[in-house]
UniProtKB/TrEMBL annotation:
Classification via Gene3D superfamilies: DNA double-strand break repair and VJ recombination XRCC4, N-terminal (2.170.210.10)
Localisation: Nucleus
CDD domains the UniProt entry points to: HD_XRCC4_N
Highest taxon, organism lineage: Eukaryota
Protein name according to UniProt: XRCC4 protein
Residue ranges constituting the XRCC4 N-terminal domain according to the UniProt record: 17-88
SUPFAM superfamilies: XRCC4, N-terminal domain
Amino acid sequence: MEKTLNRIHPVSDPEATYFLQVSWEKDLGTGFGIVLSDGQCAWTGTVSAAEISREAADMEMNREKYVEELKKALIAGEESAGKYNFAIS
């Protein structure tokens, strides 16, 4: 299993710091687990391959392109800094 951990500062609260951990088996397109933490609390979830396909279809985006964008937003880290915005609600 592969994992990444990135620090994010959501646009909804730029002074706050959150930590986003993403874990996956083969590749992100087969589904992944996610943990979001503010350092005191943590929230967990999973995203299935079917949910990824559904979201790509809803956005009228090729599934492979959608998975590439997910990679850039969720696991690319510093190289994608400033290109993606996160909002916590």
